[in-house]
Amino acid sequence: MSAAESWPPSRWGGGEAVLRARAEAAGYRRLLRARAAEVEALRGAVGALHRQLEGLRDRRSGELAKYQERVAELEREIGEAEAEMARCLREYPALLRLRMALEVEIAAYREMLEGEELRLGCLAPP
Questions:
Q1: What angle do CA 114, 117, 122 make, to 5 degrees?
Q2: Residues 9, 18: contact at Cβ < 8 Å?
Q3: For residues 88 and 50, what is the distance between their CA atoms, to the nearest angstrom?
Q4: Burial class (CB in 10 A: 0-12, 13-18, 19+), 27
Q5: By C-alpha distance, which of 126, 106, 105, 101 is closest to 117?
Q6: For the whole model, what pTM was predicted?
Q7: CA–CA dist 56, 103 (Å, integer)
Q8: What is the widest separation between alpha-carbon atoms in the chain?
Q9: In which band, very low, low, confident or very high, does the pLDDT at 1 lie, cut at 50, 70 and 90?
Q10: Residue 120's pLDDT is what?
């Protein structure tokens, strides 16, 4: 309570006006206390949200590192698969030539075998 509020109403000049002013001032003080309580509650909520945000950031950064590691591992596996595929493609022409040579050789042996069988009379000519 201020010094002016402690003066008797007659000294202010009008008792009713002073009472209204005091009531209005008391209303403003109540409103100020209510708003101050709201501000404190909101500060607490903001603090809790900041802590929650930090926790989420920490978890997400851990997950991000894990996913980045997995991506690197998959890229390494892709590189190895590409190298294996390139090796197979380099070997394919030589293997194809070998197959063709073996087929020619098999055909030659088949002709020789059929000729021997005809010579020995085991097979009737077609």
A1: 135
A2: yes
A3: 56
A4: exposed
A5: 126
A6: 0.48
A7: 67
A8: 152
A9: low
A10: 85
Measure the CA–CA gap between 40 and 124, rounded to whole angstroms. Answer: 111
Q: What tokens does 88 get?
A: 């197979």
| Per-residue confidence band for 8, with pLDDT thresholds at 50, 70 and 90 | low
Record the tokens describing residue 109, joined without a space. 């042996």
Lookup: tokens for 79: 């590189």
Token digits of residue 30: 């109540």
CA atoms of 87 and 98, how far apart (whole Å): 17
Contact 122, 113 (CB under 8 A): no
In the block, tokens 């020619």 appear at: 104
**CA 82, 83, 88: angle at the middle one, nearest 5?**
95
State how far Cα 58 lies from the chain centre. Answer: 13
pLDDT of residue 118: 87
Retrieve residue 66's tokens: 């894990």
Asked whether the predicted pLDDT for residue 9 surpasses 60, the reply is: no
Start-to-end C-alpha separation, the chain: 132
pLDDT of residue 6: 62
